[in-house]
Amino acid sequence: MGMTTELLINAVVAGILLGGFYAALTVGISLSFGILDIVNIAHPAFIILGSYIAYLMSATLGLDPIVASVVALPFFFGLGALIYQVYYLSFERRGQDPMRGLAFFFGLLIITEVVLIMVFGVDYRYVQTAYTDVTLHYGIIDLPMRMLVPFVVALLLVAVLILFLSRTFTGRMIMAVSQDATALRLLAANPVRIKRIAFALSVATASVAGALLIVIQPVEPSIGREYIGRIFAICVLGGLQSLPGMVIGAMLLGIIESITATFYGPSWAPAVSFSLLLFALAFRPAGLFGR
Amino acid sequence: MRTPTFLLVSLVLGAVLFALARALGNDYLFFAGYTVLQYLVLATGWNILGGYTGYVNFGASAFFAIGAYTSVVLQKACPLPLPLMVVAGGLVAGLIGLAMGYLTLRLRGAFFAIGTLALAVVLQTIVVNWDYVGGSRGAYVLRPADIQIAGLTLPYVQYLFGIMIVLAAVAVTIARAVERSRLGYGFATIRDDEAAAEACGVPTLRLKLLATVLSGALMGMAGAPLPYFIGYLQPSSTFGLDYAINAIAMPMIGGTTSWAGPVIGAVLLGTLQQFATVTISSVANLLIVGLLLIGFVIVAPNGIIGLLQKLRRPASGTSRTHHMLRGLR
Amino acid sequence: MTRILDIKAVGKRFGGFVALDNVDLAVAAGERVGLIGPNGSGKSTLVNCICGALQNDSGTVHFDGVPLNGLQPHQRTYQGLARSFQLPRPFATMSVADNIRIPLLFAVHTRRGHHLSAAEADRRCHELAHSVGLGDKSDHAPSSLTQVEMRKLELARAMAADPKLLIADEAMAGLSDSEVDDIVNLLLRLNAEGVTIIMIEHIMKAVLNFSQRLVVLVSGRKIADGLPEDVLRHPDVERAYLGQ
């Protein structure tokens, strides 16, 4: 088998693993933007926050970062609930124009990043786990554990959320509120409370996604912004209200980026996702799978 | 006040400012003054799209950087006097604005905002990979120590300050002229209700494209003299957070519906940041800007101008609303 | 009879849902047409397709001989088509007078031979505001207007575009009897000045008082088109409304 074919196959495999991870990054936005129509561009900053908290717990308590992120879930859930409450009282209830909502989240993005810089500095942080340096080999295919484990956890996370939204009562209320808040009120449910739970969930996913990120690569406070385009590109590609569609979009992006990085160099990778986003927005804003 | 008169008044004020700085003789004043005025132009440019039409551009730093990098390219390929570099920076940035507009303006506001972020990263990646302008290592620009103008020998930083004064006067005059013209009415309808605007005969796409071009051009012009100001240009800081957030925070804090808002925001916030950088740290000042942005957006959505209007006419009803309204007087 | 509006075989789908199915409609210049139908019958979709807010999937729309397919809403307004919105959509940061000024600045001002000076525009704004009874509120913000005043502003703004055809989309919903009469009289006056009017309404009294011709839309299809008395006796129409 030729060298290029082998490279290509590994690039595709790496892309799939990367895509799974991207799905974990994006699932929070699928909830807040796709279902609640809230443009939370601070989400990547919360992911980085998750990375740092996982790092901290790993360094001080010796916990595996992914386990640490699960422990940190309630904190992120609470943070999300608080942010939604402020957002709701300041914007949604007043019927303010969307510009102010966007500015609010942009401000949060900046503040989070700056606070991380002030507390941790700009140096890269990384974690060392039992599996960081392990790579599985299957014939010509290499499967680095530091990508494989996040891939598995990511898909688990998305699967749990899909089940939650379709099988549990609260989950179905969340799907319903995105379509008809009035009908929900008639069922004697409080739409604000439902939306708050949904938003809190979306921020909670950032905890896990952050831990996965720091397992895959070293982090520093400003890399969140690199991911904004990727995340929204995936949402647009996969269709805003379809979680399975989002996963496929994530895989697609992962594969394209991986191939670009392998054959043209990693410094071009961000341009790939963002260009894809721009063209997707320009020509198929409803996504490959429709809204 | 008619437009040419306003321009004249602004230039005269600028000349006074310049003379004052020279009289006080402190070099730092020129550096600080340049920085604040640069933000003024950046904020004014941003506001033409963001404030007047309501389309939020998160990629302001890209337009700013394009202006700066145009100067770098010209400096290497075909050096021009600085005023022409400024115009060139404006032209290139304006063209980028047009391209961005074609790609993203048909979208809902939120998608547009995300598109602008995407564009900023694409442009940054291109610059980082382009060796002619130094790539990620950065580009050095040799700045002359002084310059001969009309028989006078000026230290170069004073020359830069003077250029920025003129640019600021021009930018504010343009913003005010647009605001009071038919174009300004059209922009406001787009902000208030785009579908209704279309039904009233407003060619919304055409106006939005105009706004992106004008906005991009002004932001590019703000960045054009930068390489000469700092001598060394690096993509990560030129495309950085600093400019992106200030471009948004200054108009939002000052007030987005009028040309005066970005001016107030830039002067207040710019001066505050100069203080904070010197007394605390340059990172802390971004934190302050972020907190102020969120605070104002929640508490005072119409910015400082809105607050001043509320103070002047505490009674509710027609008089207050009258004042908040636009009009060709 | 000059046909000012000629709609042939217009269709519109949203995914699998057929909102408009092969709708034909011809309106003569100067006519007063009433368009009625149950909720969800496609009346608003038809208006949106005529005015360009939506593009029809099939069929053609001709206005005064000009094919409208593919034209943006503002281009159609420029041709002489105007509409008021079902839920009033005033420009919130502008005064009543300035709201009315917008179509003057953009639709009328740009027409050949129609350049308005600032003074003329001002005068026309106040004239229009006065004609709908908002003369002494020209400087007010839309947020300070009552429901019926907002409806009047909607109509005044549509009239400012100097249209040949005005579509009044449920301009009277929720108004009292005397307020309904106000609006009907306004539209009658407008018609007397030569403006063709299509009135979309649920308030039967108003539609019957006003219309020379009645068109009925049910589930995206036109089921009746003719004199009001004839249409109301039509068995399909009775069936459509008896179920309400």
Task: Write structural notes for this entry.
The complex is a heterotrimer of chains A (291), B (329) and C (244). Helices cover 76% and strands 3% of the residues of chain A. Chain A has 291 residues and is mainly alpha-helical. Chain A has one domain (3-283): ABC transporter involved in vitamin B12 uptake, BtuC (Orthogonal Bundle), CATH 1.10.3470. Chain A starts with a helix and ends in an 8-residue tail after the last helix. Chain B has helices at residues 3-24, 27-50, 60-77, 82-104, 109-128, 156-180, 182-192, 194-199, 204-223, 226-230, 235-238, 241-254, 260-279, 282-299, 303-312, 318-324; strands at residues 139-140, 146-149, 152-155, 232-233. Chain B has a two-stranded antiparallel ribbon. In chain B, strands 2-3 form a two-stranded antiparallel sheet. In chain B, strand 2 (146-149) and strand 3 form a beta hairpin. Chain C has a single domain (3-242), classed as P-loop containing nucleotide triphosphate hydrolases (Rossmann fold), CATH 3.40.50.300. In chain C, 39% of the residues lie in helices and 26% in strands. Chain C has helices at 43-51, 73-79, 96-108, 118-131, 147-160, 177-192, 204-210, 228-233, 235-242, and strands spanning 3-14, 17-28, 32-36, 58-63, 66-67, 81-84, 165-169, 196-200, 213-218, 221-226. In chain C, the strands form two sheets. A six-stranded mixed β-sheet of chain C has the order 6-7-8-3-9-10, sandwiched between helices. A four-stranded antiparallel β-sheet of chain C has the order 2-1-4-5, with helices on one face. In chain C, helix 3 (96-108) packs across helix 4 (118-131) and helix 3 packs parallel to helix 5. The radius of gyration of chain C is 18 Å and the shape is globular. The model of chain C has no long low-confidence stretch (mean pLDDT 89). Classes of the chains: A mainly alpha (291), B mainly alpha (329), C alpha/beta (244). Chains in contact: A-B, B-C. Chain A binds chain B through residues 33, 39, 41, 86, 90, 96-100, 102-104, 106-108, 110-111, 113-115, 117-118, 222, 225-226, 228-229, 232-233, 236, 267-268, 270-271, 274-275, 277-279, 281-282, 285, and chain B through 50, 54, 56, 58, 102-104, 106-107, 109-111, 113-115, 117-119, 121-122, 125-126, 128-129, 136, 191, 241, 245, 248-249, 252, 256, 283-284, 286-287, 289-291, 293-294, 297-298, 301.
